[in-house]
Write a structure and sequence with these properties.
7-stranded mixed beta sheet, alpha/beta, Aspartate Aminotransferase, domain 1
Length: 343
């Protein structure tokens, strides 16, 4: 397995060397537990430098934990959460958001992973009627599970609509860095400046070992978060090991370099396979994922050498993900193999 390379997920990549070094450097002596340490304070300062001072930042173990604790803080069990049907909170979190928040998830069908006001409007109703779940949160994913990206204008339309209806906007930003790199914009441009309320900020998919952040853009919303994080088993005692990683990720533009490289490798792969007639790329390659329909008989053959996931078995649609550590040689080798197999 030493030379194993896959295109299954950016979770399969290793830890960025500078981030790994930050963990080693933090592993010295004693420090106060549960976030009252200088590493955590420094990491929060880094976030405020990038997103603005009027935020509250909290660290958790993983993406599901970030989504659940963030959503739990801004909802009651009688609320509903509107999202794309492909959203991680709807598909890939084993029902945890519904179980733990108690909220009803309302998934919307979309062909590109992005939801719009026209899709949302029919479900924003029943306010004050005790027989209906009360609409409270619109959750979008940036970048989406299909690798597509919301523009700031698209997000602003959603946040404006939400706030006019006394609702809030949560962003699952597991790949928020990839989205910013794709748009050529700052993280602030696609979060603070477009009035989102809560962000799950991803680190694991962009070069960290583990750890995510939950960021509130209105500090008043975060008053009860520390209790919810503890009850949700997402409070780590040795928080310095998450914080040190974020401090490194947010320094020297590592977050941007990693995401930009992963995006570039996906686009390089798309370019190298565009001449294979039996491959149909189904989504715009805007970040670090390629979704493609390929002959079903070829899937298992390719997976034996390069593991990846089947996205839609009925359509024979697969997902190929690139990472911060994917090399051009990886792309050359994989694309060459695809040319051999898919004929």
């Amino acid at each position: 397995m030493k030379n194993f390379r896959s295109f299954a997920s950016d979770n399969n990549s290793g830890v960025h060397p500078e981030i790994f070094q930050a963990i080693i450097d933090a592993n010295t002596g004693h420090t106060i537990a549960y976030g009252d340490d200088n590493y955590t304070k420094s990491a929060i300062k880094k976030f405020k430098f990038l997103l603005g001072d009027n935020i509250d930042v909290f660290f958790v173990f993983n993406g599901t934990g970030a989504n659940i604790t963030g959503l739990s803080t801004i909802t009651n069990s009688y609320n509903s959460i509107i999202c794309a049907e492909t959203a991680h909170i709807n598909v890939d979190e084993c029902g945890a958001p519904e179980k733990i928040t108690g909220c009803k998830i309302i998934p919307l069908h979309t062909n590109n992973g992005k939801i719009t006001i026209d899709l949302i409007k029919p479900h924003v109703k029943g306010f004050g009627f005790e027989h209906h779940s009360q609409p409270k949160v619109i959750s979008i994913t940036q970048a989406t599970e299909l690798g597509t990206v919301y523009t700031p204008e698209e997000i602003k339309k959603i946040t404006s609509f939400a706030h006019k209806n006394n609702m809030l906007v949560h962003v699952d930003g597991a790949r928020i860095c990839n989205a910013a790199a794709s748009l050529g914009l700052s993280l602030k441009n696609i979060t603070t400046d477009v009035d989102i309320d809560v962000l799950s900020f991803g680190g694991t998919k962009n070069g960290m070992m583990y750890g995510e952040a939950v960021i509130f853009f209105n500090k008043n919303m975060a008053n009860n978060f520390k209790y919810i994080r503890k009850q949700s088993t997402q409070l780590t005692s040795k928080m310095r090991y998450i914080s040190a990683q974020f401090e490194a990720l947010l320094s020297n533009n590592i977050w941007l370099k990693n995401a930009k490289h992963a995006n570039e490798m996906a686009n390089l792969l798309a370019d190298k396979i565009k001449d294979i007639p039996k491959i149909k790329i189904t989504q715009k390659v805007e970040t670090n994922g390629i979704f493609a329909i390929i002959p079903g008989k070829c899937i298992s053959i390719i997976q034996e050498k390069y593991f990846f996931y089947v996205w839609d078995e009925d359509k024979s649609e697969v997902r190929w993900m690139t990472s911060y550590d994917t090399t051009e040689k990886d792309i050359d080798n994989f694309s060459s193999f695809l040319h051999e197999v898919i004929v």
